[in-house]
Amino acid sequence: MSEPDITAQRSMWNAWNRVREEQQDEVPLRQAAIVCGWLDDLGRTDLDILDVGCGAGWLEQSISRYGQVTATDLADEVLERARLRSPEVTFVAGDFLTLPLPEGSFDVVVSLEVLSHVADQPAFLAKCADLLRPGGTLMLATQNRPVLERLNDVPPPRAGQLRRWVDAHELRALLTPRFVVDELFSVTLKSRRRHPIRALTSVRVDRVVRAFDRGALDRLRRTLERRGYGWTLMARARVSTKA
């Protein structure tokens, strides 16, 4: 089956992001909280940050306090509206792999749930590495393939949508040619099938446990996330200085 062309992908992502301009669910909000925590750890407010695949630009208001943000996406119509909401951000519409961004000009590259939607994942990560300054950091989130396949019923890809989920081992293998991986873990328990994890994420369980030991439930959830049951894989990696 042939890959959808860029025009079909652009149309799909304009439609997809149009309904996500106003509200985000727990998955992207958890990703954003972790990215902001990583940025806090850098202790700087003068960073040059690139957000690859920014969608509706919802993350930019959170990360702009750490420095100057450039944000890219195929969804050109959505970016026009994002510019009005965040005029301090430089939005660049287009195919990331062909955009003429200056190499070695960013301290941080952020990319949330984009890797699985690109045709050439090694080339995507190689360009992220090329755009970073020596010692620069990649902060990446992507879907956790085993969890989405085994614990969730995800609709098939839409017309114009690429989908190549990875597991933790595959993600590490993709990163290691150009990056030193500092952290790689899963977050956010989420299940749409009859499974114990679905029970652990239900409001009903929260209400029952709250009266007894909410801390125990939170510890159990964190343990399962560390064991790879989270919907999202989060990776923080430094660009390698090896030739």
UniProtKB/TrEMBL annotation:
GO biological process terms held by the UniProt record: methylation
Protein name (Swiss-Prot/TrEMBL): Methyltransferase type 11 domain-containing protein
Keyword Methyltransferase part of the UniProt annotation: yes
The keyword Metal-binding appears for this protein: no
CDD domains for this protein: AdoMet_MTases
GO MF terms, alphabetically ordered: S-adenosylmethionine-dependent methyltransferase activity
Methyltransferase type domain residues: 50-139
